[in-house]
Each structure stands twice: as C-alpha cells, then as structure tokens.
Amino acid sequence: MQAALSAVDAVFRLAGAGAVYADQPVQRCFRDLHTFDTHTFLSAEARTRYAKHLLGVPQPPQLL
Fold this sequence. Notes:
Elements: H1 2-15, H2 25-37, H3 44-55
Helix pairs in contact: 1-2
C-alpha cells in the first residue's frame, strides 16, 4: 500500500494543478488509493489481529 501511495502521490505532483479536476484519471486514482488506505481493513488493529491469527493466538470475536 505504501508503494502504491508513493507512486500515485508522485504522479499527482507531476501532473500539475490540472490533476485536481474530477474528469482527470490521476485525481480518481489519488482519491481511491488514499481512501482505501484509511479503510479499516488496512488499520493497525486489523494487521495485529491477522498476525495473531497466523501465530495461533486466540482472539475474542469481532463485532460488526
């Protein structure tokens, strides 16, 4: 995820001020990747739960 964010940030900067307009594909990629990065699936808590699962550490059930 960090590599994808770095790449889209670099392209966005190189695209210039016109990249902010809604009809620009770079803007959509920038927005989508930054939105996905903040999603709960990629949170530190989710990564910790997944690591514990891989190590066989019992965990309480998660509420939706």
